[in-house]
């Protein structure tokens, strides 16, 4: 069994939740989202995040706007829609229940 594959699947399972959580406080462009995930030790490559951001936008959870940059081309800033905020609250509740259950099971003596 390949442990790296299992770890990657676990990270992929929470990536959507983490991206929405990053955008909870303020809009951000892709590099900022990737940096925040990297700072939390959740390594994600651009080839993974772009399709996910597009899917979340198409699902109505995110919107975006273009903003001029002083250091290059315009940047696409993503933000949560009202539906995205509601969805995130639901995920947050589910995450709490799931992490409590997993902690209870894995910490049994």
TrEMBL record:
Location of the Transcription regulator PadR N-terminal domain: 19-90
Classification via SUPFAM superfamilies: Winged helix' DNA-binding domain (SSF46785)
Top-level taxon: Bacteria
Record-linked InterPro entries: Metal_resp_DNA-bind_regulator (IPR052509), Tscrpt_reg_PadR_N (IPR005149), WH-like_DNA-bd_sf (IPR036388), WH_DNA-bd_sf (IPR036390)
Name the UniProt record assigns to this protein: PadR family transcriptional regulator
């Amino acid at each position: 069994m390949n442990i790296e594959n299992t770890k990657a699947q676990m990270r992929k399972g929470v990536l959507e939740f983490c991206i929405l959580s990053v955008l909870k406080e303020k809009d951000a462009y892709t590099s900022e989202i990737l940096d925040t995930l990297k700072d939390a030790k959740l390594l994600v490559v651009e080839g993974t995040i772009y399709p996910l951001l597009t899917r979340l936008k198409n699902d109505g959870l995110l919107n975006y706007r273009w903003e001029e940059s002083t250091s290059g081309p315009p940047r696409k800033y993503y933000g949560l829609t009202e539906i995205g905020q509601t969805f995130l609250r639901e995920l947050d509740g589910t995450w709490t229940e799931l992490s409590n259950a997993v902690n209870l099971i894995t910490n049994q003596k």
